Amino acid sequence: MLVKVLSGSYFGVEPFLVNVEVDIGNGLPIFIIVGLGDTIIAESKDRIRAAIKNSGYLMEPKRIVVNLSPANLKKVGSNFDLPIAVGVMVGMGFVRDYNKVLENYMFIGEISLTGEIRRTQGVISAVLLGKELGYKGIIIPEENYEEARIIRGIEIIPLKNLKEVLKFIERGEYLKKEIEEQKEKEEYSVVLEDIKGQSLGKRALEICAAGGHNLIMIGSPGSGKTMLSKGILSILPPMEEREIIDSTKIYSVAGELSENKPIINKRPFRAPHNSSTVTSIIGGGKYPKPGEISLASNGILFMDEFTEFTRESIEALREPLEEKKISITRSRNRVEFPAKFIFIAACNPCPCGHGFEEELCTCSAYDIRRYSKKISGPIIDRIDIYVEIRKLSEEEILNGKKGEKSEKIKERVIEARKIQEKRFKDKLLNGDMTNKDLEKYCKLTEENKEVMKVAIRSLNLSMRAYNKILKVARTIADLDKSKDIKREHLLEAIAFRKK
Description:
about 15% strand, 21 helices, 18 strands, about 500 residues, four-stranded mixed beta sheet, about 40% helix, alpha/beta
């Protein structure tokens, strides 16, 4: 008897449909799974046997062949336990009237030896696929329900064990899970008003948040670079539904969701340590998974002590900083992960860290030059805003007043983003502008062209760096609610370039 069960897998973060074909017949008792599955899938036959037996059903010794179609695509993970088990149980006659369910519903989930259905990865991707393909619903583990329910337009059935699954297949009955909606109040570990002084750094963060620009802060140890970086979360607008779904999908595929964090509804702040490998930062592995740059999508990627990262890790950021995605090629396949994040880097001006306080600095000119070369020109070229963070004076430390509240800055950021939304008619920010957009929205007056001529000569600007200045100037003008880029907007943007 041949039974077909619908399921799904993912390649990178993109899902694809998998037809689980289960053929049960007489002959030598075997249980084979074919279709390019990984070790976890190969081991599922032992879990399924035990789960069916411990659920109270008797598996007769039969010849069982399972095919995961399409057979030419690699499948990974334990999410095929449930569809395979359903195919075996239906094929053995444990349930009769099943066609309506098997034709219209997808199945995904891991199975324990007791027959319980456990949390698995990539559920939200499968739900999105089921909705896109027009299926009526999807059967998932109860533990994945919080994650999956953010997708509307498809019936989501969270079940606990194999007995409940068979009951639903035969009678269409299941216990509907109701979850009370709770609005969490945004809480931040750092708000900008708690940081004394550093008005230039706070201004840079405001521009950065408003236009989606990349930022590097160079300053002495203890000057507040890390606190400022964490404070940007308090001025970013709340995540939209589209962003929540996109981020949750990435975290689901990466296995980063849990019972305590079922969905990603707060902007991610990823801060990898400088000892992190290239693979952990950009993603990859034998079965490619998202790295820190993808987990930071719709949020912040913060790299503290930037110059202490390996040269390879720093240079690997070139493509994602420019393209907002990362392509990873292996011998048999090519995977593309999203990487739409705001990049913030922080480092010291020299090896000893006191380059801005000449009386304290112990580094030679050679040491400083060698240290600065750790960040290559192409990387600096891809960063929009460069700001020097100086140590606070005695007066600022002892009597410094609190600055402007994050809430007030956030209001300006949201208003600037609304202007950009109207301008681009989509979800682009100024930091994402193409050359055509620059020609249309960043026109310079003759006076401003003269200003840029001086800047190009004195700062030795490349075409990319010139475009970066225009993008930052456009954001400053938006914060000022100005239709045109004025001289003061351009001068401020130029001031944020590396001298």
